[in-house]
Write a structure and sequence with these properties.
alpha/beta, Glutaredoxin, 5-stranded mixed β-sheet, 27% strand
Length: 108
């Protein structure tokens, strides 16, 4: 059960979060070890929650202005949006179950 994790930049970020009822965006960098550790977690969640939550990744090099807008100081940072509004923020690497629990509150 695989799902697509979209790649976002400053130019398509707003459209993505506005278009999806519930969206999780993972701000990351290729050189960041904890970010790389989160990749399989995000991929698994995207498969498990397909149809309920839309998932995307935003590389800090391509979404720097967006990261500044949301005050992202550390990566990985996961932002959870509902109906286009940021509702939750997780900073750092988290276990899959904790992320899934936070997302479940948004889709109820």
């Amino acid at each position: 059960m695989t799902a697509v994790v979209a790649e976002l930049s400053d130019s398509n970020f707003n459209d993505f979060v506005a278009k999806h009822k519930v969206a999780l965006v993972d701000f990351y960098a290729d050189w960041c070890g904890p970010c790389q550790a989160m990749k399989p977690v995000i991929d698994e969640l995207a498969g498990e929650m397909k149809g309920k939550v839309s998932f995307a990744k935003a590389n800090m090099d391509k979404a720097g202005a967006t990261a500044n807008k949301y005050g992202i100081m550390s990566i990985p940072t996961l932002l959870i949006f509902k109906n286009g509004k940021m509702m939750d923020r997780l900073v750092g690497a988290f276990p899959k179950d904790m992320i899934k629990q936070r997302l479940a509150k948004m889709v109820e």
